[in-house]
């Protein structure tokens, strides 16, 4: 697939490494700081989680001729691992190997979005890899618990939570606690393996709380939420609410604008990452400490607006949810890309079942969401199957196969929380968010479908020696003893490796 993409003209985009490019991503600090003062700059980063800036900073410390080849190699490896780990996750969850292989090939490997995002030095592919790896590590640990697998699970959760603000370290720690409570026999193993990554997440939470007054990894919530709230107000409504004193004048400013738009004086005291007003490429430094208070005031305006005009906010949420099921290769980054046009159109129409493509310009200028003919009905089916089927699978297996139930519940919770948060707080980039958690949705939708098929087969062709979830669960090491579903059966034949 990558070879075809290269032949079709898709090239690795590395504009984030260009010091004076005017379109470096907002999430990055000034590249000069990342190159000359990386550690101090990361400690003073409040706008976003630290790992994306760390990654770009490490690339900038390489010789100039090595930066792009190293980045392209890492992203290609992530592209390959996303497919491999998706397949292994389904196999460990008792999906027949041939089914897992077909689903992975059709819906992951051949998806043009996988190639397009892996060709951009952005954080989308690293996030997608982290979500996929976290799901695999959770399933692997719960099937065959060892301290090593616990360490991989906690490390993958820490990686995701310190890379993207839609999944917080507090959520990662909560998942580990819930596993320990639900399966008591795993507590000692979990603590032995997970203590170091958990300590790292706890220390970053403490650092953010002391230094910037928030236990989260980003202070941008208020400015992010302005898009689906004040940004979707009818013409003239925001000005009217400001005149009536129901919103502050800050509501009139464009989210993520320069400080002068807000009428706020920049912070001038402290490290340069917190005092710089404009980065070397001309973009505002959204990590200036003044943006902390701006975002807090924005959040107050956002919540007031939701109380005053919930209909406009619900409209934005509905549009965001609809954009979330538009094929991910139609993300606005790729709207003008001419490469792979024929393949993308074919794949979206006949595999993702999207009758007609979605024009992002109609959303950007008219706040118009996609019509039913512009969404992917395959994506919708996956979400419905995973969203409704996995709770049933968990309920069926909870009493006798607690570890298997948790192996389904943990990825489901991760993907569900991620999609809910991004849908409620953003509108416009939602199909990228769907891509970032998409492999989990695909895996769980397949598990739910296979379980339903097995249940139907057992119902119409009863066999007392088989269960609705199939004998594959026992073969793969999910054979909890009947009397204690939270402990491990001392069985020498139980698999010990993934």
Overall spatial form: globular
**End-to-end CA span:** 27 Å
Main sheet characteristics: none
Mean pLDDT score: 89
Task: Give the helix/strand class.
Answer: mainly alpha
What report would you give on this structure?
The two termini are 27 Å apart. The protein is built from 23 helices and no strands. It has a domain at 2-219 and 373-475. The longest helix has 31 residues, at 430-460. Mean pLDDT is 89; it is low at 489-498. The protein has helices at residues 2-7, 31-36, 38-43, 51-60, 64-92, 97-109, 112-118, 124-143, 147-161, 169-182, 187-212, 221-225, 237-243, 259-262, 272-275, 290-308, 310-324, 341-350, 360-366, 377-397, 402-425, 430-460, 472-475. α5 packs parallel to α8 (124-143) and α20 runs antiparallel to α21. The chain is mostly helical and 498 residues long.
């Amino acid at each position: 697939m990558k070879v075809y993409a290269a032949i079709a003209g898709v090239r690795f985009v590395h504009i984030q490494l260009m010091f004076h490019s005017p379109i470096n991503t907002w999430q990055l600090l000034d590249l000069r700081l990342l190159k000359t003062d990386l550690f101090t700059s990361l400690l003073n980063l409040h706008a976003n989680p630290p790992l994306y800036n760390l990654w770009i900073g490490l690339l900038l410390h390489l010789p100039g001729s090595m930066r792009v080849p190293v980045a392209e190699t890492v992203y290609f490896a992530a592209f390959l691992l996303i497919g491999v780990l998706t397949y292994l996750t389904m196999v460990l969850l008792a999906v027949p190997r041939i089914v897992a292989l077909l689903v992975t090939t059709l819906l992951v490997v051949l998806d043009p979005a996988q190639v397009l995002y892996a060709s951009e030095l952005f954080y989308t592919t690293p996030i997608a890899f982290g979500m996929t790896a976290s799901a695999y590590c959770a399933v692997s640990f719960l099937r065959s618990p060892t301290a090593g697998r616990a360490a991989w699970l906690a490390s993958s959760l820490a990686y995701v939570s310190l890379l993207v603000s839609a999944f917080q370290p507090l959520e990662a720690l909560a998942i580990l606690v819930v596993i320990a409570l639900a399966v008591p026999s795993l507590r000692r193993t979990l603590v032995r393996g997970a203590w170091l990554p958990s300590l790292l997440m706890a220390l970053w939470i403490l650092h953010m709380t002391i230094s910037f007054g928030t236990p989260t990894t980003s202070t941008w919530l208020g400015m992010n939420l302005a898009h689906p709230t004040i940004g979707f107000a009818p013409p003239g409504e925001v000005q009217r609410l400001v005149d009536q004193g129901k919103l502050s004048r800050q509501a009139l400013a464009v989210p993520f604008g320069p400080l002068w738009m807000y009428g706020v004086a920049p912070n001038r005291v402290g490290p340069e990452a917190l005092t710089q007003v404009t980065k070397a490429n001309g973009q505002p430094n959204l990590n200036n400490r003044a943006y902390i208070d701006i975002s807090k005031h924005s959040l107050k305006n956002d919540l007031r607006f939701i109380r005053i005009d919930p209909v406009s906010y619900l409209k934005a949420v509905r549009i965001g949810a609809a954009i979330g099921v538009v094929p991910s290769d139609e993300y606005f980054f790729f709207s003008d890309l001419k490469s792979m046009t024929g393949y993308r159109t074919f794949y979206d129409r006949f595999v993702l079942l999207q009758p007609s493509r979605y024009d992002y310009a109609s959303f950007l200028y008219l706040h118009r969401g996609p019509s039913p003919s512009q969404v992917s009905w395959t994506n919708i089916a996956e979400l419905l199957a995973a969203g409704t089927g996995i709770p049933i699978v968990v309920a069926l297996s909870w009493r006798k196969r607690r570890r298997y139930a948790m192996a389904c519940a943990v990825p489901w919770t991760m993907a569900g929380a991620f999609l809910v948060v991004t849908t409620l707080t953003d509108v416009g980039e939602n199909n990228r968010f769907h891509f970032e958690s998409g492999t989990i949705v695909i895996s769980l939708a397949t598990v739910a479908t296979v379980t339903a098929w097995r249940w139907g087969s057992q119902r119409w062709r009863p066999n007392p020696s088989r269960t609705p979830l199939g004998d594959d669960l026992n073969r793969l090491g999910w054979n909890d003893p009947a009397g204690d579903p939270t402990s491990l059966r001392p069985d020498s034949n139980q698999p010990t490796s993934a």
